[in-house]
Amino acid sequence: MGRSTEVLTPPPSEGTLEFLCSGCGACCVWAGRLKDMPQNPQTGACIHLTSDMKCSIYDTRPDICRIDKMYEINSGSIDGIEMSRKEFYKLNTMACHRMIDEEGMDERWKIKIGDYDKE
After folding, report:
1. What percent of the chain has pLDDT above 90?
2. What is the rounded radius of gyration, in angstroms, for the C-alpha atoms of the chain?
């Protein structure tokens, strides 16, 4: 049930681009605040987040927890603004940074945005 980067078959123009995840669990803490996610009544986090900050249902987690799937579901757009997979990943990584900051987590959990530009 460990974390890994998600890899779906990207469009040929974007090669083998992957969403980079540090496995910090901040998104799982925030997911518990979504109305359709089961919430741990003691922590407020997603009920599937374990005490060691791992997802207990990682392999079968819902689509909202899968960045690649959300890109496909939203047809490469957010609020009607179309973007490349790389732009979508960068935007989601910036959201990760905000969650990490809000949770008071160590900076080492942050993926560098520039890592998406490396070949």
Report:
1. 56
2. 14
